[in-house]
Design brief:
The complex is a heterodimer of chains A (about 210) and B (about 950). Chain A has a two-stranded antiparallel sheet with strand order 1-6. Chain A is built from 7 helices and 6 strands; from the N terminus they run βαββαββαααβαα. Chain A has one domain: Alpha-Beta Plaits, CATH 3.30.70. By secondary structure, chain A is α+β, with helices and mostly antiparallel strands. Chain B is an alpha/beta fold. Helices cover about 25% and strands about 15% of the residues of chain B. Chain B contains 30 helices and 37 strands. In chain B, the strands form 11 sheets. Chain B has a 7-stranded mixed sheet, with helices on one face. In chain B, strands 29-33-30-32-31-37 form a 6-stranded mixed barrel. Classes of the chains: A alpha+beta (about 210), B alpha/beta (about 950). At the A-B interface, helix 1, helix 5, strand 6 and helix 6 of A face helix 1, helix 2, strand 4, helix 8 and helix 29 of B.
């Protein structure tokens, strides 16, 4: 069974915000609600790194644990969805979430936040009718049902943001890390690059 | 199973009724595609590729969903876009995973282009300013009134009093048509944004080795071992190019060096960042070369065979010892040496530059210095090397190639009589008729001869305001400019804002043709005389577009023109009709419902653009490439198998000969390792065969497979005869080629035969390190006009003032003479933000983008902020030495060095503290307005091309 995950490769993220607008584009998210955003640390100084952050679809989701009306479900693919028909807009999930994922369309006193909104991993809502007008209106597109992955990751300019099965993503990232380690080793001057590449060349068939 | 791709036909909704309720989780279990996208994200998987190629798709909501292939209209990377259209509405955007440039990736702008299909803040109808109020009018009224006024100006003041400011947002066909229209009107007062982005590159680079364009490609950077970016911030300006740079870094271990006054988002990912004082590029490059020459790291054999006059460079470089370099640039020796060593030890290395290098009064010196650096290291003509000059707008390369410029006809033919005769022949028009369209006087002399107006450079876009404001006696044309077309142009991208306002107020008529009203509609305080005509975007029409790497890509129409907008070429036709030259202008172009047939336009420029090889890219070939994106290799861009077998994607120019010759395009310029027939080339023989008695043709170097193994001049009919190759021409070709050369033989025979013998039509010469026709033959350093180091002016003075340069008096020394650095102690520079493009009228009107950058700001170092008592987020006044000032938010950051401030240039709609929102036509004001930084930026123009100096001026910043 797949276990859906996002991973953002900080060595590659350039804070271009494509993930943010791709999400807006695909899900017609209104102004003021950002299911995804890019966070930059050490902005403007050596060591500056950016990360694209949305709902991380936690395995043991704190939002789910604190929701007083139990509106969250974790799908068999590991996607954390919530039911906007049940949601009362109390905001507990917002306090529980370590990533600041839950968003609210309104901003006012006396519980006028509106229904919570967050990243659905482009998987719509808990409705069974995929991409029904109702589902699209409430949650946006259901790309997983179409065999596609979240648009934010699919449109990432530098392929920093990865989405998909945790195992596959780990493989992709591991390859990058191994390559970077080898590059750093080679750049240190302790091994001739040519010789290293020669070692990597597979033997030619006779 | 829903995912199976069946055919190219559109699925009817009814066909889906049986399958639409497949449970998504069940589907995922069965499909095995769950992680396909992730795998694809690195270009490893093939599963999703098929998916994104699917032509059609149906949704349960009914209606047919059609996938349309087009190209992003923002920057020059040329990312592929898959638009999903249902019942004429643009409903979705899918990643084009198989596109050879972007593999589905986009930046914030590219991921948001579907908003064009909403267009809420578009200019919706032809609109006219009447008594200070916007009034909706019909197209007929607009075209009639504008046309009458133009004809009136023509009769009373002459054709040169109308300025045709075109656009890098045109597709190739429209750009070509626009230049043709200016020619038919009878003026060279036509230009576009290339003047203010890479004109110094085009001039400097073309004069070094032949063509002024990116030599390799974004994709080719995968092969680089080292990447040096100077004066460029591609992480924000060309974000998808970082995909290629990251691949080179991650997989090839390429070293990345960023030289920029700011610690940019690109610099954040570099191995080394060098912060130089703005305007000191030449000293820094010579500083690196000093170490390279000292250590003998230069490629001596390459220089011997393929470079002329490197010794004169050595003499200049010898003056730039590490201590002098540090004094002038502010960069210590160790940093310079480290960069030089990285580039020397990691070859091939590529050199990338952008506006940071070009927008200076010595821009042409900068670009030539970069070229010389690459020549010294032997990095030219190899995969992974080259000068990868990232162009700006999506079609600024194409619009430049097609001559929307004041100094040339399409194809860089120039304005000489022979050039006009060549195009008159292509257009099938009488040369004398064309000449008669121009003012019959003369504005300048060459020797004793009066130069006809049609052979005289026009006024460049950077100076149009002076063409209005300057004393008529000082302008070298009959009258000042009286009417302006701003056809796809953001005026806030130009310097001297307060003077521009004045110029706009002084014009008799302003015509803005644009999808958005632009800053032009609100900047001048006028009561009447402004027309706003709604143009369609490139998603509402179709045609070809040239990416930075010289590849031509075909766009299909996504949606019909929205509201009352019309495609640019339709407007051009209707205007030509009103002005009375549509018969000549469209002699061989099919017209249907006032729309000129795009393919006919492509074919027409195919017949004339021999100089740059825009001849082999027929509409049919380009469309075929568009349908087979996935067959081109991600690194070499070559199709291996499939219908485009052997072609390079988009037939990067030069694509020699006629389309029937099937030249594959030239992926990396000046690569002698490939035969010319397969995309190889030597340096171009453009400057004769010798200089000062010394041979300047290549020595002992030629392309693989060439029958001439040494240097040779450009091909002419006579040369073919001398070589005994004349007989290789067919009888018709012989007839057409007689007395012609490779540039003017419209049969393409000379090119075909030269290539058949393995030779480049344009000859085989050395690159020249000195350009003896330029003000500074050897690129030297000159301080900016507004310099922060006035003490250096004595050693590195600017030029003498010029009385008439591109028809206008141009000041240098008289400005630099005064020291402003005391009153204005901070260096001001400008640049881009990822969310916005160009002047930003379009992207600030897109809510998905506008939300991300709501405020105009100035970046300043904490030291300067503290000294001025400014805190982060404070409103401040930034004031320039010419009196322009802007009220913006302070962003206090160490991204800029002490003494340097940075502003983005995309904002407009606020002028010197005054919000102009109320002046926009109703409902067409962009979501985000802000001060235009160019209100503060000052005088200063390149000594060859009139590029504006926007990368270094002075300012002072005080709390508002």
């Amino acid at each position: 069974m797949a276990r859906m995950k996002f991973y953002c490769d900080a060595e590659r993220c350039i804070e271009c915000n494509a993930c943010v607008t791709a999400c807006k584009n695909e899900n017609e998210v209104p102004m003021g609600v950002n299911r995804r955003r890019v966070v930059t640390i050490r902005d403007g100084e050596p060591g500056e790194r950016s990360l694209s952050v949305a709902c991380m679809h936690c395995s043991d989701a704190p939002c789910q644990a604190v929701c007083p009306v139990d509106c969250f479900v974790t799908t068999p693919d590991g996607v954390v969805l919530h039911n906007k028909d049940t949601c009362i807009g109390c905001g507990y999930c917002f306090y529980a979430c370590p990533f600041g994922a839950p968003q609210f369309p309104l901003d006012g006193q006396f519980s006028t936040r509106g229904k919570m909104d967050k990243c659905t991993f482009c998987n719509g809502g808990p409705e069974t009718a995929n991409n029904s007008p109702d589902e699209i209106r409430k949650y946006g597109r259901n790309r997983l049902a179409e065999g596609k992955l979240p648009l934010c990751a699919e449109m990432c300019s530098t392929k920093a943001l990865l989405a998909g099965d945790a195992g596959v993503i780990a493989d992709i990232y591991r390859k990058r890390v191994v390559n970077r380690g080898a590059n750093a080793y080679l750049a240190s001057g302790s091994l001739q690059k040519g010789a290293f590449e020669a070692l990597q060349t597979p033997p030619q068939p006779e | 199973m829903k995912l199976t791709r069946i055919s190219e036909q559109t699925l009817q909704p009814s066909a889906l009724t049986g399958t639409k309720t497949l449970n998504r989780r069940e589907f995922l279990r069965q499909s095995g595609l769950v992680a396909g996208g992730a795998a694809l994200a690195t270009g490893l998987g093939a599963g999703m590729m098929k998916k994104s190629q699917a032509a059609t798709e149906a949704t349960p909501q009914g209606g047919q969903v059609k996938q349309v292939r087009t190209i992003c209209t923002h920057c020059s990377v040329g990312c592929g876009i898959l638009a999903e259209v249902q019942d004429g509405v643009w409903v979705g955007q899918e990643p084009a995973f198989d596109h050879p440039f972007n593999r589905g990736g986009h930046c914030a702008k590219g991921a948001a282009v579907r908003e064009h299909g909403h267009g809420e803040r578009r200019l919706k109808y032809p609109t006219k300013l009447v008594d200070g109020k916007w009034k909706r009018i019909t197209w007929d009224e607009a075209l009639n009134e504008i046309g009458d006024k133009l004809l009136d100006i023509r009769a009373n003041a002459g054709p040169d009093s109308v300025y045709w400011l075109g656009s890098a947002k045109f597709n190739n066909e429209q750009a070509y048509l626009f230049r043709k229209m200016a020619a038919m009107w009878g003026t060279n007062n036509v230009d576009h944004q290339a003047r203010i982005c890479h004109s110094t590159t085009v001039a400097g680079v073309a004069n070094t080795w032949g063509y002024g364009a990116m030599t390799n490609s974004y994709n080719d950077m995968h092969n680089a071992r080292a990447i040096l970016i100077m004066g460029g911030n591609p992480a924000e300006a060309h974000p998808v190019s970082l995909q290629h740079i990251m691949k080179a870094k991650d997989e090839g271990g390429a070293r990345l060096i960023v030289i920029d006054p700011r610690f940019t988002r690109t610099a954040a990912h570099a191995d080394q960042h060098i912060a130089l004082r703005p305007g000191t590029d030449v000293p820094l490059v010579w500083g690196m070369l000093w170490h390279i020459f000292k250590n003998g790291w230069e490629d001596r054999e390459f220089i011997r065979q393929r470079v002329y006059a490197m010794d004169e460079i050595r003499a200049e470089v010898a003056k730039w010892t590490p201590d002098v370099v540090e004094d002038v640039t502010g960069v210590p020796e160790a940093e310079v040496l480290r960069a030089a060593r990285t580039m020397a030890q990691n070859r091939p290395g590529t050199f990338v530059w952008c506006m940071g290098g070009t927008q200076h009064s010595i821009g042409n010196n900068n670009t030539r210095a970069y070229c010389i650096f690459q020549l010294a290291l032997g990095n030219m003509g190899v995969a992974g090397g080259g000068t990868n000059i990232f162009r700006g707008h999506d079609n600024v390369q194409g619009a430049t190639d097609l001559g929307v410029l004041a100094d040339t006809l399409p194809g860089y033919y120039g304005l000489a009589e022979g050039s006009w005769k060549h195009w008159a022949k292509v257009w099938d028009l009488d040369f004398e008729w064309l000449k008669g369209r121009f003012d019959n006087g003369s504005y300048e002399k060459s020797g004793d001869q009066e130069t006809p107006v049609m052979n005289t450079n026009g006024i460049p876009v950077s100076r149009w305001i002076d063409g209005v404001l300057e004393e008529p006696a000082n302008i070298a044309q009959k009258n000042a400019i009286k009417a302006m077309f701003l056809w796809g142009h953001a005026p806030n991208s130009q310097t001297r804002g307060p003077e521009m306002k004045k110029a706009m107020e002084q014009l008799e008529m302003m015509v803005v043709v644009d999808p958005y009203p632009t800053f032009s509609s609100v900047l001048p305080d006028r009561k009447d005389g402004i027309y706003l005509l709604p143009a369609a975007t490139q998603f509402e029409t179709y045609g070809s577009v040239t990416a930075s790497n010289r590849s031509l890509q075909w766009r299909d129409r996504v949606i019909e023109p929205m509201f009352e907008s019309r495609p640019d070429h339709v407007i051009m036709y209707q205007l030509a009709k009103k002005l009375g030259f549509e018969q000549e202008m469209f002699k061989h172009i099919q017209i249907e419902n006032d729309e000129p047939l795009i393919e006919d336009l492509t074919r027409e420029f195919n017949r004339g653009m021999w100089t740059v090889g825009y001849t082999g890219q027929s509409p049919e070939r380009l469309k075929q490439h568009q349908q087979h994106w996935g067959t081109f290799d991600f690194t070499s861009l070559k199709a291996d198998g499939g219908p485009c077998n052997g072609d390079f994607y988009g037939l990067p120019w030069p694509c020699w000969g006629t389309a029937e010759m099937k030249h594959p395009g030239s992926p990396n310029l000046y690569d002698t390792g490939k035969p010319v027939a397969e995309g190889g080339l030597p340096f171009r023989a453009r400057y004769g065969v010798e200089h000062n008695g010394v041979n300047i043709l290549a020595e002992g170097s030629s392309n693989v497979g060439a029958e001439l193994t040494d240097g040779y001049p450009e091909f002419t009919a006579d040369m073919l005869k001398q070589l005994g190759w004349w007989g290789d021409l067919t009888a018709e070709e012989q007839q057409a080629a007689e007395g012609k050369n490779w540039k003017t033989d419209v049969s393409g025979g000379i090119q075909r035969v030269a290539i058949k013998h393995g030779c480049a039509p344009y000859g085989n010469a050395k690159a020249r390190a000195i350009v003896w026709t330029f003000p500074d033959p050897v690129p030297i350093h000159r301080e900016p006009l507004y310099t922060s180091r006035h003490d250096l002016v004595a050693s590195y003075p600017t030029y003498e003032d010029r009385k008439s340069f591109w028809r206008l008096p141009t000041r240098y020394q008289s400005i630099q003479a005064r020291d402003y650095s005391g009153e204005f102690p901070i260096i001001l520079t400008s640049g881009r933000l990822v969310e916005y493009e160009g002047g930003g009228d379009e992207s600030r009107s897109n809510p998905w983008l506008a939300e991300l950058q709501p405020d105009m700001f100035v970046e300043m170092n904490p030291r300067d902020a503290n000294n001025a008592g400014i805190q982060e987020g404070d409103q401040v006044w930034v004031e320039g030495p010419e009196g322009g000032r802007i009220r913006v938010k302070a962003l206090v950051t160490r991204r800029v060095a002490p003494g340097v401030a940075f502003t983005p240039f995309h904002f407009a709609g606020v002028f010197e503290g005054q919000d102009l929102r109320a002046k926009y036509p109703e409902g067409a004001d962009p979501y985000v307005l802000g001060e235009a930084c160019n209100t503060v930026f000052t005088y200063g123009y390149d000594s060859v091309t009139q590029m504006q100096e926007t990368k270094c001026t002075l300012c002072r910043i005080a709390k508002a």
